[in-house]
Design brief:
CATH class: Alpha Beta
Largest sheet: 4 strands, mixed
Number of domains: 1
Helix content: 10-25%
CATH architecture: 3-Layer(aba) Sandwich
Radius of gyration: 14 Å
Strand content: 35-45%
Distance between the termini: 7 Å
Structural class: alpha+beta
CATH topology: Trna Endonuclease, Chain: A, domain 1
Order of helices and strands: EEHEEEEEHE
Number of strands: 8
Strand order of the largest sheet: 3-6-7-8
Length: 115
């Protein structure tokens, strides 16, 4: 994963907001990709969705997936940008399983973007 870099992505054309915050240069790259993607109608990081999951230690936590995407066919997806070194972490697996379940109940899809 690229080094951490936070900032503002200004004037996105497919977001309802004039500024979208990113938490890494990889997220910024993904935002630019979403802007170019002809299958994406809308996207945002500022979605307010929190998915509850239980950590390996048994604690209840909230998880905020990175992006809410609406495709041109009106399907909705949650996308998570995650470094490959974190994919097999037990708590990452728990977060992703909770997000998949949350999405399934709402007719949505959960997608992990990794390198």
């Amino acid at each position: 994963m690229p080094p951490s870099e936070r900032g503002d992505f200004e004037d996105p054309t497919k977001s309802a907001y004039s500024v979208e915050r990113y938490d890494s240069s990889w997220e910024l790259q993904y935002m630019k990709k979403l802007e170019r993607d002809k299958t994406v109608a809308k996207w945002t990081k500022n979605h307010g969705i929190t998915v509850q999951y239980v950590t390996e230690a048994g604690n209840v936590r909230g998880y905020r997936p990175d992006f809410l995407i609406e495709c041109n066919d009106e399907t909705k997806e949650l996308h998570e940008v995650k470094g490959g070194q974190f994919i097999n972490d037990p708590n990452t697996i728990r977060k992703h399983e909770a997000a998949k379940s949350w999405c399934r109940k709402r007719g949505m899809r959960f997608v992990v973007i990794t390198k």
